[in-house]
Amino acid sequence: MPYSYAMPVNSEPNSRPLGGVLNTAVHLGHPFGDSLVRPGQALLVDGPLACGKTTLLRSFAERASEAGYLAVTATCSPSERDLPFGVVSQLARGAWKSPGGPPEVPGLPDILHGAGDPVDQAEIARLCHRLCTSLIDHAEHTPLLLAVDDVRHSDPASAHFLLQLVRRLDSTRIAAVFTDDLSLPSSLPLRYELLRAQHLRRIGLGPLAPGQVAEVVVAELGETARRHVGDICAATGGNRLLLHTLLSDYREHGEARQTGYGQSFLSCLHRNEPIFLDVVRALAVVGSALPAADLAWMTGHEPEPISQVLAALTGAGLMDEGEFRQEAARLSVLNDMPAQARRTLHQRAARLLHDQGRPATTIARHLVRAGQIPDSWSAEVLLEVAEQVAVGEEASIAVDLLEQSFEQCPHEERRAVLQAKLAEAEWKINPSTATRHHAPLYGAVRAGRLGLPDSVTLLMQLLWKGGLSEVEGLLAHLREDPAATDQLHAIEAALTCTYPWLAERRVAPAHHGGSAATRAAVWPRAGTVLADVLTGGQSHHTVRRAEEVLRELQLGHDPACHEQAGLFALLALVYGGRNDLASAWCEGALGETGGGPHVPMRQAVLSAARSEIALRRGDLAEAAEQSRAALTHASPGAWGVAIGLPLGALILACTRMGRHEEAGFHVAQTVPNAMFKSSYGLHYLYARGHYFLAAGRHQAALADFLLCGELLTDWGLSSGCDPVPWRIGAAEAWLAQGNHDQARILVYQQLSRPHTDGARARGQSLRLLAATSSAKRRPQLLNEAVGLFTEQEDKYELARTLWDLSQAYHALGEKKQARRTMRRAWHVAKMCDAASLYEEWLPADNQHDATAPTPKSDTAIERLTHSERRVASLAAMGYTNREIAGKLYVTASTVEQHLTRVFRKLDIKHREQLPTELYVDRMELA
Q1: What pTM value is reported for the model?
Q2: Of 157, 235, 364, 905, which residue has the fewest beta carbons closer than 10 angstroms?
Q3: Out of 3.40.50.300, 1.10.8.60, 1.10.10.10, 1.10.8.100, which CATH number does the structure's domain 863-925 have?
Q4: Residue 772 — φ and ψ, nearest 5°?
Q5: Across 582-665, where does the E strand assignment appear?
Q6: Number of H helices and number of E strands within the chain?
Q7: What are phi and psi of 44, to 5 degrees?
Q8: pLDDT per position as a tens digit, 47-75
């Protein structure tokens, strides 16, 4: 392996650097003409940690032995610095105890056996003199190489011996080789004697340059590994030991490992002064670089030696200005650290980072890993950190921190507050786990130990979980509390959204919240917006307020009920027919801050909202996928009474996709009884009604639809936006039983509503009204419904309406128009995965009928230009040339020319053979 050399510090001729590759230039034979070191000279190998000094020293000793020298070696260690003559003992075993070695020195055996250690400087000087004389005399017959590794760690008595020997070296047949790191301080006189000696040569070793690293990598791993040279340089800093072990790790496992790279890193630290390990352990705990002053506070050392350690680590390539080059090294340091030392460092890191105003999430991680909250931390600071963490995506860290604080807190009132915050943090992960706190918190509210904000948060959790008896008791308590007056409107609004039968209709305060505390909370205003939609319908004012709520949630406001507030605001938009806005919020700003894996309930709520939006757009596969995601992010038990929303969407999507067996499986799942007393139960009942309708159980379906209406009437919500179009469902059930009169009554009731349910409900009503009207009137009603569904982008309802329209044309004898419309209906149903429709319209044994499209390869379709594809798409949906021309603002002749080229490229003869892959939705054609 090649070595690099540094220029010497002094300018004496014998301090010149050496050129060439060192491991081919070590010569100690006789005569000494061109050798690196010869008798009477000393060689100092200087360099940072793990840069090859020890390897070079061993190479000198091996070659010296081959050349007939008596080579004796010793390794110094910081842990043996207090052992008198520890280095001398190693040299003695190699010299005086070897066959043919110098005669035994008086007093030496006592030292080797650990007895009779010298106690004063005079005795040390006399013994050192005898040792030097013995070696010098023996070297007259047999040349001697003395090699001492890490000489700065030698004990003072041994250093005294080496100092005497170096002073006499130029008149002897002894060569001495020492290794040291001159960048680190040393109080031994030996170093300075060496540096001023005329007979000293120096070799400066350092990390390998990138080019040298590349040579080693290619030699070890082959030419194909050259692309990894940059990463390997960054991971090793050119350090020889790290490079060697990293290449071994790559060769055997393909990545850096703690047992290889990490252990080599650790070995470098353990071979040096304890301050190295202390500093690196502190950096491993913090996980990032720190100034020397901060490290001094964490470790108890002075800043100056810490700065020297940091410089040495960087110079050796082990670290990069206080940053770990590889995570395997940091993990190895952490795993090597005693548990108590690690906890202490985490406590100190938390205090340091808190005093510096660092992010609460970072501080909380250290407090959690400290294992026990130090007494110096005030409860207020802990709550502040926990609340800040809970706002973001680290709810699990907040849980661990609050759990520790709660267990250690001796004060009853403070414990109640901590438990409330703990339940709030656990709620974000899994509401089911938070229920264990509800009983004691309920008792704390009744005993007056819990404040109003925490009491209201507890009420919201109880509403979600369906704890009706506790909800009623807590409501009674709050309604009797004068301090809760300003909050009661928000509470009643939330009840309207969840358990409308519990709500007492109250006049809203003039400024939506009264007190500053109420105005600052987002979820009460979200509940108020949704309650206003349910009671009075959608308006521009409610849309604006819903978006204000979502905008504040995007900024991280109101962590206590973020999930419910977001769901309330999104449902307010959905119920009012603003699927476009709701979808934009889900996929845009809210989706970017949806919580991820650390806040599963937030992600679950977003998925549930997406599934409801997809259903109302007729995107059945998307609705099913998002519903499953909602039930995966949070288990059915975690959803509480709100399970009706994602489960209902999944049942309805599966039913419309023709997956009746799967839909039946979900219908058979157990749901909480309290769900049927909540507004979320309406979604479930409506979906189950459609499942029953598809299964031919018309009476059961009718009962579910009518129950939705009865509940809304009992709750006083019959004048606002219906969460589900139950009248349409009930009318379909009556039609399935052949009762057109009852169906017509419900349809007229729906049409007479003051436009609270929007264009989608009107389109559904017109489709059913056409089913109960004369043949001549049907095309007019159905064409109007087609326009409404096209505008709303509801593909499922559009497909059903187009099919009815084709049947109406057929009944009037307009065969060509009927055929075009039927083809368009089939395409739209196929596009939205409504197998329950297109399989019924085109049975399996008639798949090759003229109405069925001809499959074409993607390559054939890709040959179409953008304009050709736009025209072909509309033609595939059943539009005439004139209708296509009107939509695309071109002439009918242009449309005809485009279609001629399309037929030729796709190798078909007429438009009935156009493939379904050509379908694009209205937004793409705009």
Answers
A1: 0.66
A2: 905
A3: 1.10.10.10
A4: -105, 10
A5: none
A6: 49, 8
A7: -110, 115
A8: 888 888 988 999 899 988 888 888 999 99
